[in-house]
Specification:
heterodimer, A: about 325 residues, mainly alpha, Fumarate Reductase Cytochrome B subunit, two-stranded antiparallel ribbon, 12 helices, about 65% helix, disordered C terminus, B: about 200 residues, alpha+beta, Alpha-Beta Plaits, two-stranded antiparallel sheet, 6 strands, about 15% strand, globular
């Protein structure tokens, strides 16, 4: 018993010391600890960056974006702004062309046909042009279906037919992008020589290109209007191709914001491109007598060349050799027009 | 009429991923697709938060608005579903979704997208309720059996709540009151245009 008694006093002392230590800094019960004091907050995160991103344990790293409210702005652009831009650009251009045709009519050959022709575009040039043009038309229709199909076409043919058509349109759009891109590159290379802007183009533009009145400003192989179309095709075509491939190979080069921007650029450039091509198709078909055969058969009437591309005609006649550019009588039945 | 919503209480989520596993198993979700995911923000730092996220079934769903073939529909309960038969796999719903819910299997050439797949609130799709075709395309239809989504049922801490919006908002409010703190209902402002004051 005495050994036990020896321990009692130090034991009591130790307990007292312990109680003293514990009592001193003890928090009062009224004071609650808020464990979320330093935690992240949804509103604060969205203000700092325009998205919330974290860490995920699943392999698909795109799922680490918790919220990207930019999607709402993209929706607004795509459903509202794009349809306005496209509608105004394309319908506006159509209206301008209709009014112009009613006012001016087809630009006739003032000196009439001479019956002699000269080669304007060779077979290779025409093949590249028509391959690119055909692809463009199908790409345009399938692309417009994505933006305008639901409000305009779906109510007419119903869900199943419209989805089936849209599915094929999507395949056509994706696959024809390749020959179209190749065509744009070839057009760029083969006609770059004749499409560098120069002072003559300024003169041509100042004289309105002969659109109003009976003026015939001189031009080389490509006049300023054609050079405009060339650069629209090369630059516009380049942009839609680049953004188009980015859309077709999703997330290879960018995250979600990059994809949204790519879609915006692709669609805006595309609708403006379509508007420009409507004008190009107009002038090459019903807008001007003797124009279509340039791309159709490859040969144009010498009088047409004299009136619209006089400097080019002089060049061609000056270097005419036995094999090409020799004006010769037109064959009996013309397939053009 | 009930208006179904999801609410993830980020203060309770422990990142166990039971919700992710339950969903994947119940619907036999194809490889590579995750209808539900748990995102951890500020991982390892003070203030770390984990949030379980799948489709929020938004009011005025942006996915439905941008779909070129109009394959989405909203049920009477407010659940946003879509038809895989009509879907053309264009990807627009993913660009518009603030939560990244739509997923696409890689089936086409060059990694192009197959039919979109996403959380269905365990409510299947346009096919007949509980049919084999519905299960193959969209997974189980628990809602038709009167059950709630499996992710919320399996949540180990009951941080993920699913059910009528009014009821789960009330549960959350009571929790916040009792414990004295709450980081808010993540995603509610974006999805439903309302907040639960915490």
């Amino acid at each position: 018993m005495s050994s036990f008694a020896r321990f009692i006093r130090p034991a009591i002392g130790a307990w007292a010391l312990l109680l003293l230590i514990m009592a001193a800094p003890a928090p009062s019960l009224a004071q609650q600890i808020n464990p979320t004091a330093s935690s992240v907050n949804e509103r604060q995160l969205l203000q700092e960056m325009d998205r919330i991103q974290g860490r995920v344990s699943i392999p698909d790293q795109r799922s680490s974006v918790l919220m990207q409210p930019a999607g709402r702005e993209w929706r607004e652009f795509r459903n509202v702004a794009l349809r306005w831009i496209g509608g105004v650009a394309m319908l506006g251009m159509l209206a301008v062309l209709v009014i112009f045709y009613l006012a001016r009519g087809m630009v006739r050959l003032e000196s009439g046909r001479s019956g002699r022709t000269i080669v304007r575009f060779n077979t290779y040039e025409r093949v590249v042009h028509w391959m690119t043009a055909t692809c463009f038309v199908i790409l345009a229709i399938s692309g417009l279906n994505i933006t305008f199909g639901r409000p305009l076409l779906l109510p007419l043919i119903g869900f199943d037919a419209f989805s089936e058509w849209s599915q094929w349109a999507k395949f056509a759009h994706n696959y024809l992008s390749f020959p179209f891109t190749i065509g744009v590159v070839l057009i760029f290379l083969m006609w770059i020589g004749g499409n560098i802007p120069n002072k003559l183009d300024l003169e041509w533009i100042k004289r309105g290109g002969g659109l109003i009145g009976h003026d015939h400003p001189p031009a080389r192989r490509f006049n300023a209007g054609q050079k405009g179309i060339y650069w629209i095709v090369v630059i516009g075509g380049g942009l839609v191709a680049a953004t188009g491939y980015q859309l077709m190979f999703p997330f290879y080069v960018s995250g979600i914001e990059g994809m949204q921007i790519a879609q915006i650029v692709h669609s805006v450039v595309a609708v403006l491109f379509i508007a420009a091509m409507l004008a190009h198709i107009y002038i090459g078909t019903i807008g001007m007598e003797g124009a279509f055969e340039a791309m159709g058969s490859g040969e144009v009437d010498v009088n047409w060349a004299r009136e619209h591309h006089s400097l080019w005609l002089d060049q061609e006649l000056a270097r005419s050799g036995p094999n090409d550019s020799q004006p010769r009588p037109r064959h009996a039945a013309s397939a053009a027009e | 009429m009930a208006r179904m919503k999801f609410l993830c209480d980020a203060d309770r989520c422990i990142e166990c991923n039971a919700c992710v596993t339950a969903c994947k198993n119940e619907h036999e979700v194809p490889w590579g697709i995750n209808r539900r995911r748990v995102v951890t923000i500020a991982d390892g730092k003070p203030g770390e938060r984990s949030v379980s996220m799948a489709c929020m079934h938004c009011t005025d769903a942006p996915c439905a608005a941008v779909c070129p073939v109009n394959c989405f529909y909203t049920t009477a309960d407010g659940v946003v579903l879509h038809s895989k038969d009509l879907c053309i796999g264009c990807g627009y719903c993913f660009y518009a979704c603030p939560f990244g819910a739509p997923q696409y299997p890689k089936v086409g050439n060059f990694g192009s997208r197959g039919k979109m797949d996403k959380c269905t609130y365990c409510a299947g799709g346009p096919e007949a309720d509980g049919s084999k075709e519905e299960y193959e395309k969209y997974g189980a239809n628990r809602l038709a059996e009167g059950k709630l989504p499996l992710c919320a049922e399996m949540c180990s801490t009951k941080s993920l709540l699913a059910g009528d919006g009014e009821i789960i908002a009330q549960i959350y409010r009571e929790r916040v009151l009792k414990r004295g703190y709450g980081s808010g209902a993540w995603g509610w402002k974006t999805a439903y245009r309302e907040t639960i004051e915490s």
